[in-house]
Amino acid sequence: QLQLQESGGGSVQAGGSLRLACTASGVSANAYCMGWFRQIPGKERMGVAAVDSDGSTNYADYVKGRFTISRDNDKNTIYLEVNNMKYEDTAMYYCAADGPLYGLAEYRYKRWGRGTQVTVSS
Fold this sequence. Notes:
About 0% of the residues lie in helices and about 50% in strands. By secondary structure, it is mainly beta. Strands 2, 4, 5, 6, 9, 10 and 11 form a seven-stranded mixed sheet that branches. A hairpin with a 5-residue loop joins strand 5 (about 45-50) and strand 6 (about 55-60). The chain is globular and about 40 Å long.
C-alpha cells in the first residue's frame, strides 16, 4: 500500500525560502500524479500544486511564481520549493497521490500523508 511521508517543514522568516519533500513507500509512486495541499485551522484543505508521472505540472493561481513542484522518480519523492515566503503561507502542508493534475480538490486524491507544519514569521 502506498504511504506518504512529508518532511522539511518548520519556521521561516518572511522573504525566506523552504523546500518540502514527500517520499513514497510501500509501492512505487512513479505512475501516480502527486500533489501538495495546505490547510489552516478552520479552513478547507486547498490545492497548491500537482506533478504528473511525466513531469507535467499545475499550480493554483494564488501560488504561481513563488512555488515550484518537482519530482525525482529515482528517489520516489516529490518536492515543493517556496520562495519569498509570506505570512499567509503559514499552514499545514500535505502530500497527496493518485489524483488528477488539474482540478486540485481534496476529495479527488486517494492517498495522503500526515502533513508538515510551515510557520512564517514577519
